[in-house]
Design goal:
Blueprint: H1 2-5, E1 11-14, H2 21-51, H3 58-84, E2 90-93, H4 94-127, H5 132-135, H6 138-163, E3 173-174, H7 181-186, H8 193-228, H9 232-258, H10 265-289, H11 292-311
Parallel strand pairs: 1-3
Antiparallel strand pairs: 1-2
């Protein structure tokens, strides 16, 4: 019994996304280009918000932090995926797998709560415009940000506690390109039915709970605006459309994988490529390209960089 309870698996093997050489080559080029764009785009947005005094407002403060989280979330899985596409034997150490799980859930959970904070910011701006700066004061902004990270940390630690002592004695193949909790649990040499339920309930609760709160906030904002001015409804929809698009892109894959009771492995993989590769690039793009003030600030920042290069 003691031998059975000990883990004898020291590494896990990723089966990857596809066995097709052409598909792997496409994914390599696609993922590399998008990851470079994610890094440069999100860093550029953060530097623009920091350097431009006109953007020192609650909305842009939260947007800069969203860019930071998107960059971190993508960096947990994408570089490893790109590296593995060069090799037929794709492995990750036992410890590396747990570290990847920890950071995926801390950044994912933090982003979910941060999106609620951004919805609250839009509520204050649209429904309470005269009191906006009083509501979204610096202390409130810091509180919302810290709360997002704390809840993300609690969610991640809770998930990890469920699996940290699981015994693994083989097989050690994970049908994915990153360490995914549901698939990892199925490899354990133990009865994991209850554990799978708890992990699914944990992730499902934070995903569905956050999405529910966001939907309620959007409905409340639109109803409030319509009561005061029917013409203002279209403006409110235009303001919220970017946020709603980001929410749909982020929560779609999460809910499908952790809540949908009939998972299909190939679709799961491509949905999480959406979460790790495409969404972190689209998030800042959606917010910036629809925002005139942000576009002006970015052009000004680029011109400042050009002037600085000439001086050097």
């Amino acid at each position: 019994m003691n031998e059975m309870n000990r883990s004898i698996v020291y590494e896990f093997v990723f089966l990857g996304i596809s066995n097709s050489w052409a598909m792997q080559l496409f994914l390599l080029v696609f993922s590399f280009i998008f990851y470079v764009a994610i890094v440069l785009g999100n860093i550029f947005i953060m530097l623009t918000v920091i350097s431009e005094t006109r953007l020192h407002s609650p909305m842009y403060f939260l947007l800069a932090n969203l860019s930071l989280i998107d960059l971190c979330l993508s960096s947990v899985a994408v570089p490893k995926m790109i590296y593995d596409l060069f090799y037929e034997h794709k492995v990750i150490s036992f410890l590396g797998c747990y570290i990847q799980i920890f950071f995926i859930h801390i950044f994912g959970g933090t982003e979910m709560v941060l999106l609620i904070s951004m919805a609250f910011d839009r509520y204050a701006a649209i429904c309470k415009p005269l009191h906006y700066l009083n509501i979204m004061n610096p202390r409130m902004c810091i509180f919302l940000l810290v709360s997002s990270w704390v809840i993300g940390l609690i969610h991640s630690v809770t998930q990890l506690v469920f699996v940290i002592n699981l015994p693994f004695c083989g097989p050690n193949e994970i049908d994915s390109f990153y360490c995914d909790l549901p698939r990892l649990i199925r490899l354990a040499c133990a009865d994991t039915y209850k554990l799978q339920f708890m992990v699914t309930a944990n992730s499902g609760f934070i995903s569905m709970g956050t999405l529910f709160l966001l939907i309620i906030s959007y409905i409340y904002i639109l109803i409030t605006v319509q009561k005061h001015s029917s013409s203002g409804l279209s403006k409110a929809l235009s303001t919220l459309s970017a946020h709603i698009t980001v929410v749909a892109l982020f929560f779609g894959p999460c809910i499908f994988v952790y809540v949908w009771p009939f998972p299909t492995v190939p679709l799961d993989k491509f949905l999480f490529i959406l979460d790790f590769v495409i969404t972190p690039l689209l998030n800042p793009s959606i917010y910036t390209f629809r925002n005139k003030e942000m576009k002006i600030a970015m052009k000004r920042f680029i011109s400042q960089l050009g002037s600085f290069r000439k001086i050097l």
